[in-house]
Amino acid sequence: MTQATNTAVPQRGARVAPGSAADRAIKRRRILDILDAEGHDSLLLTTPTALAWYLDGSRVHVSLAGDPIAALLVDRGGDHLVTFSNEASRIAAEELPSGVTLHTVPWYGNLHQAAAAVGSASRPPLAEADVAAQLRRARRQLLPAESARYSRLSAELAGIMTDVLSTARPETTEFGLVSALAARVVAAGAEPLVLLCNGSSRSTFRHPLATHAALGRRAMAVVCARRDGLIANITRWIRFDAGTAEEHDAEARIAAVEADIFEATVPGARLDRIFAEIQAAYVRHGFGADQWEQHHQGGPAGYAGRDPRVTADATDTVVLDQAFTWNPSGPNVKIEDTVQLTESGLRVLTVDPRWPVTTVNGLERPATLQL
Question: Looking at the record, which segments are called Disordered (predicted)?
Fold first, then answer.
Protein backbone atom coordinates (compact mmCIF):
# COMPACT_ATOMS: atom_id res chain seq x y z
CA MET A 1 0.00 0.00 0.00
CA THR A 2 1.22 3.49 -0.81
CA GLN A 3 0.45 6.93 0.57
CA ALA A 4 -0.63 9.44 -2.06
CA THR A 5 -0.08 13.15 -2.16
CA ASN A 6 -2.34 15.67 -3.86
CA THR A 7 -0.36 17.14 -6.76
CA ALA A 8 -3.33 17.88 -9.02
CA VAL A 9 -3.93 21.48 -10.02
CA PRO A 10 -7.66 22.31 -9.93
CA GLN A 11 -8.98 23.53 -13.28
CA ARG A 12 -11.54 26.28 -13.72
CA GLY A 13 -14.97 24.85 -12.97
CA ALA A 14 -13.52 21.76 -11.33
CA ARG A 15 -15.13 20.35 -8.23
CA VAL A 16 -13.69 21.26 -4.86
CA ALA A 17 -14.27 19.07 -1.81
CA PRO A 18 -17.38 20.59 -0.17
CA GLY A 19 -16.48 19.90 3.45
CA SER A 20 -16.39 22.56 6.16
CA ALA A 21 -13.33 22.46 8.40
CA ALA A 22 -15.44 23.63 11.34
CA ASP A 23 -18.09 20.96 10.79
CA ARG A 24 -15.48 18.26 10.28
CA ALA A 25 -13.74 19.10 13.55
CA ILE A 26 -17.02 18.58 15.40
CA LYS A 27 -17.61 15.29 13.60
CA ARG A 28 -14.15 14.05 14.52
CA ARG A 29 -14.79 14.98 18.14
CA ARG A 30 -18.05 13.00 18.03
CA ILE A 31 -16.21 9.92 16.77
CA LEU A 32 -13.53 10.29 19.44
CA ASP A 33 -16.31 10.47 22.03
CA ILE A 34 -17.62 7.15 20.70
CA LEU A 35 -14.14 5.65 20.97
CA ASP A 36 -13.84 6.93 24.54
CA ALA A 37 -17.21 5.42 25.47
CA GLU A 38 -16.27 2.09 23.89
CA GLY A 39 -12.75 2.04 25.34
CA HIS A 40 -11.30 1.69 21.85
CA ASP A 41 -8.72 3.48 19.73
CA SER A 42 -10.04 3.36 16.16
CA LEU A 43 -13.18 2.98 14.04
CA LEU A 44 -13.44 1.75 10.45
CA LEU A 45 -16.07 3.52 8.28
CA THR A 46 -17.14 1.61 5.18
CA THR A 47 -20.74 2.46 4.24
CA PRO A 48 -21.90 5.24 1.90
CA THR A 49 -23.84 6.92 4.70
CA ALA A 50 -21.00 7.01 7.22
CA LEU A 51 -18.35 8.01 4.70
CA ALA A 52 -20.42 10.81 3.19
CA TRP A 53 -21.23 12.15 6.65
CA TYR A 54 -17.73 12.01 8.12
CA LEU A 55 -16.02 13.31 4.97
CA ASP A 56 -18.66 16.04 4.84
CA GLY A 57 -19.96 15.36 1.35
CA SER A 58 -17.06 13.75 -0.50
CA ARG A 59 -18.07 11.42 -3.35
CA VAL A 60 -16.48 8.05 -2.72
CA HIS A 61 -18.49 6.02 -5.20
CA VAL A 62 -18.47 5.24 -8.89
CA SER A 63 -21.53 3.05 -9.37
CA LEU A 64 -24.65 4.23 -7.56
CA ALA A 65 -25.47 0.55 -7.03
CA GLY A 66 -21.97 -0.47 -5.95
CA ASP A 67 -19.94 -0.37 -2.77
CA PRO A 68 -17.86 2.70 -1.93
CA ILE A 69 -14.44 2.80 -3.57
CA ALA A 70 -12.88 3.95 -0.30
CA ALA A 71 -12.75 3.06 3.38
CA LEU A 72 -11.75 5.35 6.21
CA LEU A 73 -10.03 4.67 9.50
CA VAL A 74 -10.54 7.17 12.29
CA ASP A 75 -8.01 6.73 15.06
CA ARG A 76 -6.63 8.94 17.79
CA GLY A 77 -3.72 9.92 15.58
CA GLY A 78 -5.73 11.08 12.60
CA ASP A 79 -7.98 10.19 9.68
CA HIS A 80 -6.81 7.76 6.98
CA LEU A 81 -8.71 7.28 3.72
CA VAL A 82 -7.79 4.23 1.63
CA THR A 83 -8.87 4.02 -2.01
CA PHE A 84 -7.89 2.08 -5.10
CA SER A 85 -4.86 3.37 -6.98
CA ASN A 86 -6.92 4.04 -10.12
CA GLU A 87 -9.28 6.27 -8.09
CA ALA A 88 -6.67 8.19 -6.12
CA SER A 89 -6.06 11.09 -8.49
CA ARG A 90 -9.75 12.08 -8.61
CA ILE A 91 -10.17 11.61 -4.87
CA ALA A 92 -7.08 13.73 -4.17
CA ALA A 93 -8.06 16.49 -6.59
CA GLU A 94 -11.78 16.79 -5.91
CA GLU A 95 -12.94 14.91 -2.82
CA LEU A 96 -10.23 14.83 -0.15
CA PRO A 97 -10.88 17.13 2.83
CA SER A 98 -7.94 18.79 4.47
CA GLY A 99 -6.37 16.85 7.31
CA VAL A 100 -7.17 13.42 5.85
CA THR A 101 -4.25 11.22 4.80
CA LEU A 102 -4.83 9.37 1.53
CA HIS A 103 -3.50 5.83 1.01
CA THR A 104 -3.88 3.57 -2.01
CA VAL A 105 -4.09 -0.12 -2.78
CA PRO A 106 -4.22 -1.82 -6.19
CA TRP A 107 -7.67 -2.07 -7.76
CA TYR A 108 -7.72 -5.76 -6.84
CA GLY A 109 -6.77 -5.12 -3.20
CA ASN A 110 -8.98 -5.36 -0.12
CA LEU A 111 -9.98 -1.89 1.01
CA HIS A 112 -11.23 -2.87 4.44
CA GLN A 113 -8.19 -4.91 5.36
CA ALA A 114 -5.88 -2.17 4.12
CA ALA A 115 -7.71 0.56 6.00
CA ALA A 116 -7.73 -1.44 9.20
CA ALA A 117 -3.95 -1.70 9.00
CA VAL A 118 -2.96 1.93 8.44
CA GLY A 119 -3.61 3.37 11.87
CA SER A 120 -1.51 3.54 14.98
CA ALA A 121 -3.78 1.35 17.14
CA SER A 122 -2.41 -1.97 18.31
CA ARG A 123 -5.68 -3.90 17.87
CA PRO A 124 -8.28 -4.19 15.12
CA PRO A 125 -10.64 -1.23 14.78
CA LEU A 126 -14.26 -1.16 15.70
CA ALA A 127 -16.60 -1.90 12.79
CA GLU A 128 -19.55 0.34 11.98
CA ALA A 129 -21.95 -2.42 12.98
CA ASP A 130 -20.47 -2.37 16.49
CA VAL A 131 -21.58 1.23 17.03
CA ALA A 132 -24.43 1.72 14.54
CA ALA A 133 -26.75 3.45 17.02
CA GLN A 134 -23.98 5.73 18.25
CA LEU A 135 -23.14 6.76 14.69
CA ARG A 136 -26.79 7.60 13.98
CA ARG A 137 -26.79 9.80 17.07
CA ALA A 138 -23.55 11.44 15.94
CA ARG A 139 -24.97 12.50 12.57
CA ARG A 140 -28.58 13.29 13.46
CA GLN A 141 -27.96 16.96 14.36
CA LEU A 142 -26.97 18.73 11.17
CA LEU A 143 -24.20 21.30 11.51
CA PRO A 144 -24.30 24.82 10.01
CA ALA A 145 -22.47 24.23 6.73
CA GLU A 146 -24.23 20.96 5.96
CA SER A 147 -27.60 22.48 6.88
CA ALA A 148 -26.92 25.24 4.36
CA ARG A 149 -25.99 22.71 1.66
CA TYR A 150 -29.10 20.68 2.42
CA SER A 151 -31.33 23.75 2.17
CA ARG A 152 -29.88 24.67 -1.22
CA LEU A 153 -30.28 21.17 -2.62
CA SER A 154 -33.83 20.83 -1.33
CA ALA A 155 -34.94 24.18 -2.73
CA GLU A 156 -33.35 23.42 -6.11
CA LEU A 157 -35.06 20.03 -6.19
CA ALA A 158 -38.43 21.61 -5.46
CA GLY A 159 -37.83 24.08 -8.28
CA ILE A 160 -36.94 21.26 -10.66
CA MET A 161 -40.20 19.51 -9.82
CA THR A 162 -42.14 22.68 -10.58
CA ASP A 163 -40.33 23.31 -13.86
CA VAL A 164 -40.71 19.76 -15.17
CA LEU A 165 -44.17 18.86 -13.90
CA SER A 166 -45.72 22.14 -15.08
CA THR A 167 -44.85 21.20 -18.67
CA ALA A 168 -46.40 17.72 -18.49
CA ARG A 169 -49.40 16.78 -20.59
CA PRO A 170 -51.84 13.86 -20.37
CA GLU A 171 -50.03 12.12 -23.23
CA THR A 172 -46.60 12.51 -21.55
CA THR A 173 -45.33 9.08 -20.55
CA GLU A 174 -44.07 8.18 -17.11
CA PHE A 175 -40.63 7.48 -18.58
CA GLY A 176 -40.75 10.83 -20.34
CA LEU A 177 -41.47 12.64 -17.09
CA VAL A 178 -38.83 10.94 -14.97
CA SER A 179 -36.19 11.26 -17.69
CA ALA A 180 -36.77 15.01 -17.74
CA LEU A 181 -36.50 15.08 -13.95
CA ALA A 182 -33.32 13.01 -14.05
CA ALA A 183 -31.70 15.33 -16.58
CA ARG A 184 -32.38 18.37 -14.43
CA VAL A 185 -31.17 16.67 -11.25
CA VAL A 186 -27.90 15.63 -12.88
CA ALA A 187 -27.46 19.12 -14.38
CA ALA A 188 -27.73 20.46 -10.83
CA GLY A 189 -24.74 18.34 -9.84
CA ALA A 190 -26.84 15.81 -7.95
CA GLU A 191 -27.53 12.10 -8.31
CA PRO A 192 -31.11 10.83 -8.78
CA LEU A 193 -31.27 7.92 -6.36
CA VAL A 194 -35.03 7.34 -6.64
CA LEU A 195 -37.30 8.29 -9.54
CA LEU A 196 -40.94 7.20 -9.34
CA CYS A 197 -43.99 8.09 -11.38
CA ASN A 198 -47.50 6.78 -11.74
CA GLY A 199 -50.11 8.02 -14.14
CA SER A 200 -53.82 7.50 -13.58
CA SER A 201 -53.71 3.92 -14.90
CA ARG A 202 -51.20 2.88 -12.21
CA SER A 203 -52.30 5.04 -9.30
CA THR A 204 -52.67 2.15 -6.86
CA PHE A 205 -48.92 1.47 -6.74
CA ARG A 206 -47.10 3.24 -3.92
CA HIS A 207 -43.59 2.60 -5.25
CA PRO A 208 -44.34 3.05 -8.96
CA LEU A 209 -41.25 2.57 -11.08
CA ALA A 210 -41.94 4.35 -14.35
CA THR A 211 -43.30 2.66 -17.47
CA HIS A 212 -44.24 3.70 -20.99
CA ALA A 213 -47.81 4.38 -19.81
CA ALA A 214 -49.21 7.86 -20.44
CA LEU A 215 -49.93 10.04 -17.44
CA GLY A 216 -53.62 10.37 -18.23
CA ARG A 217 -55.70 12.66 -16.02
CA ARG A 218 -53.59 12.58 -12.84
CA ALA A 219 -50.04 11.68 -11.86
CA MET A 220 -47.56 11.48 -9.00
CA ALA A 221 -43.78 12.01 -9.23
CA VAL A 222 -41.21 11.20 -6.55
CA VAL A 223 -37.53 12.16 -6.55
CA CYS A 224 -34.81 11.41 -4.03
CA ALA A 225 -31.66 13.29 -5.03
CA ARG A 226 -28.21 13.27 -3.43
CA ARG A 227 -25.60 16.01 -3.54
CA ASP A 228 -22.57 16.34 -1.28
CA GLY A 229 -23.78 13.21 0.48
CA LEU A 230 -27.13 14.66 1.57
CA ILE A 231 -30.37 13.22 0.21
CA ALA A 232 -33.46 15.37 -0.38
CA ASN A 233 -36.83 13.67 -0.88
CA ILE A 234 -39.99 15.07 -2.44
CA THR A 235 -43.37 13.94 -3.81
CA ARG A 236 -45.64 16.06 -6.00
CA TRP A 237 -48.99 15.51 -7.73
CA ILE A 238 -50.47 17.01 -10.90
CA ARG A 239 -53.82 16.63 -12.61
CA PHE A 240 -55.40 17.75 -15.84
CA ASP A 241 -58.98 18.16 -14.66
CA ALA A 242 -60.74 19.54 -11.60
CA GLY A 243 -60.39 16.31 -9.66
CA THR A 244 -63.12 14.35 -7.94
CA ALA A 245 -64.68 15.06 -4.56
CA GLU A 246 -63.16 11.83 -3.27
CA GLU A 247 -59.68 12.90 -4.39
CA HIS A 248 -59.94 16.31 -2.74
CA ASP A 249 -61.17 14.71 0.47
CA ALA A 250 -58.37 12.12 0.53
CA GLU A 251 -55.74 14.80 -0.17
CA ALA A 252 -57.00 16.88 2.76
CA ARG A 253 -57.07 13.88 5.08
CA ILE A 254 -53.54 12.69 4.24
CA ALA A 255 -52.28 16.23 4.85
CA ALA A 256 -54.00 16.06 8.24
CA VAL A 257 -52.19 12.79 9.00
CA GLU A 258 -48.92 14.48 8.12
CA ALA A 259 -49.80 17.46 10.32
CA ASP A 260 -50.24 15.12 13.29
CA ILE A 261 -46.84 13.56 12.57
CA PHE A 262 -45.28 17.03 12.41
CA GLU A 263 -46.93 17.88 15.74
CA ALA A 264 -45.30 14.81 17.30
CA THR A 265 -41.85 15.61 15.87
CA VAL A 266 -40.44 17.59 18.78
CA PRO A 267 -37.09 17.54 20.61
CA GLY A 268 -36.83 14.56 22.92
CA ALA A 269 -39.59 12.54 21.23
CA ARG A 270 -38.78 8.89 20.61
CA LEU A 271 -39.27 7.51 17.13
CA ASP A 272 -41.28 4.51 18.31
CA ARG A 273 -43.73 6.87 19.99
CA ILE A 274 -44.00 8.99 16.85
CA PHE A 275 -44.70 5.74 15.01
CA ALA A 276 -47.58 5.01 17.39
CA GLU A 277 -48.92 8.50 16.66
CA ILE A 278 -48.70 7.78 12.93
CA GLN A 279 -50.78 4.64 13.34
CA ALA A 280 -53.40 6.51 15.36
CA ALA A 281 -53.47 9.42 12.88
CA TYR A 282 -54.52 7.17 10.01
CA VAL A 283 -57.57 6.02 11.95
CA ARG A 284 -58.29 9.50 13.28
CA HIS A 285 -58.48 10.92 9.76
CA GLY A 286 -60.61 8.25 8.18
CA PHE A 287 -58.06 5.87 6.69
CA GLY A 288 -57.99 2.18 7.43
CA ALA A 289 -56.04 0.99 10.47
CA ASP A 290 -53.84 -1.06 8.14
CA GLN A 291 -52.73 1.85 5.94
CA TRP A 292 -49.41 2.26 7.73
CA GLU A 293 -48.59 -1.30 6.63
CA GLN A 294 -48.94 -0.47 2.93
CA HIS A 295 -45.82 1.74 2.72
CA HIS A 296 -43.02 2.79 5.05
CA GLN A 297 -43.74 6.03 6.88
CA GLY A 298 -40.41 7.81 6.58
CA GLY A 299 -38.22 9.05 9.40
CA PRO A 300 -35.04 11.03 10.00
CA ALA A 301 -33.26 12.09 6.81
CA GLY A 302 -29.88 13.42 5.76
CA TYR A 303 -27.03 11.17 4.65
CA ALA A 304 -29.38 8.20 4.25
CA GLY A 305 -32.77 8.16 2.59
CA ARG A 306 -34.15 7.47 6.07
CA ASP A 307 -31.82 7.24 9.05
CA PRO A 308 -33.57 5.06 10.18
CA ARG A 309 -37.03 4.27 8.86
CA VAL A 310 -39.42 4.69 11.73
CA THR A 311 -40.79 1.45 13.22
CA ALA A 312 -42.01 0.23 16.58
CA ASP A 313 -38.42 -0.85 17.31
CA ALA A 314 -36.80 2.54 16.59
CA THR A 315 -35.99 4.19 19.93
CA ASP A 316 -33.77 7.05 18.69
CA THR A 317 -34.77 10.45 20.03
CA VAL A 318 -35.42 13.65 18.10
CA VAL A 319 -33.02 16.61 18.40
CA LEU A 320 -32.95 20.18 17.15
CA ASP A 321 -31.48 20.74 13.67
CA GLN A 322 -32.36 17.16 12.68
CA ALA A 323 -33.89 16.60 9.25
CA PHE A 324 -36.89 14.39 8.51
CA THR A 325 -38.89 13.11 5.60
CA TRP A 326 -42.25 11.73 6.64
CA ASN A 327 -44.32 10.22 3.84
CA PRO A 328 -47.80 9.11 4.91
CA SER A 329 -49.86 7.63 2.11
CA GLY A 330 -53.28 6.20 1.44
CA PRO A 331 -55.13 4.86 -1.57
CA ASN A 332 -54.21 7.22 -4.45
CA VAL A 333 -52.70 9.85 -2.14
CA LYS A 334 -49.31 10.59 -0.62
CA ILE A 335 -47.52 13.64 0.78
CA GLU A 336 -43.76 14.05 1.25
CA ASP A 337 -41.25 16.83 1.83
CA THR A 338 -37.85 17.16 3.44
CA VAL A 339 -38.03 19.27 6.61
CA GLN A 340 -35.70 20.35 9.39
CA LEU A 341 -36.57 20.84 13.05
CA THR A 342 -35.40 24.28 14.19
CA GLU A 343 -35.83 26.31 17.36
CA SER A 344 -38.85 27.98 15.74
CA GLY A 345 -40.40 24.69 14.63
CA LEU A 346 -40.35 22.60 11.49
CA ARG A 347 -39.01 24.32 8.40
CA VAL A 348 -39.89 22.84 5.00
CA LEU A 349 -36.72 22.60 2.89
CA THR A 350 -38.16 21.24 -0.37
CA VAL A 351 -40.19 24.33 -1.12
CA ASP A 352 -40.73 26.36 -4.29
CA PRO A 353 -42.94 29.46 -3.94
CA ARG A 354 -44.38 28.82 -7.41
CA TRP A 355 -46.05 25.56 -6.36
CA PRO A 356 -49.66 25.82 -5.12
CA VAL A 357 -50.09 25.27 -1.40
CA THR A 358 -52.73 24.83 1.22
CA THR A 359 -52.30 25.81 4.87
CA VAL A 360 -52.54 22.94 7.36
CA ASN A 361 -52.07 23.72 11.06
CA GLY A 362 -50.34 26.96 10.13
CA LEU A 363 -47.84 25.34 7.76
CA GLU A 364 -47.96 25.67 3.97
CA ARG A 365 -48.22 22.22 2.40
CA PRO A 366 -48.14 21.27 -1.31
CA ALA A 367 -51.43 21.00 -3.11
CA THR A 368 -52.01 19.17 -6.37
CA LEU A 369 -50.94 21.27 -9.36
CA GLN A 370 -53.87 21.57 -11.75
CA LEU A 371 -52.80 21.98 -15.38
Answer: 1-20
